[in-house]
Amino acid sequence: MRKKTTKNFTNFKMNNEVYKLRRKVMDFIYELKNEGFKLPRIDVRIGTDKDCTILGKARLKDNIIWITKKCVSDSNSNFIRTTVYHELLHAIYGCNHVKGCPIMSAEVSDVVVNKSKSIEIFRKYYNKYN
Ligand SMILES: [Zn+2]
Question: Which of 5, 65, 86, 102 has a CA 20 to 30 Å removed from the CA of 49?
Fold first, then answer.
């Protein structure tokens, strides 16, 4: 069975609040599907990380991502989107970090790109792996 947990990250049990946070993350995945991207089913977990600077995690090429509650509840949608795309590119394709990329840089980018720009960047990676 596939492991649903990852190091230093506590998954929250599902309740109404967690379901809503998870839904918010899923919406960014649906957004990509609506743009015509063919994506596998992604397992999304919400929780907290021991390291409070962590926004999300992913297991490379295993279609599972973890996003912190803090990221989903305290950030604007452009910021959440780029975090989700970042983790998706790790989780689906095993994409590595790319210095200076607003989505794939290891550090949180100073520039938070909007929806259309995010999709444009995602497409660039998608085309590379598909
Ligand atoms: Zn990363």
Answer: 102
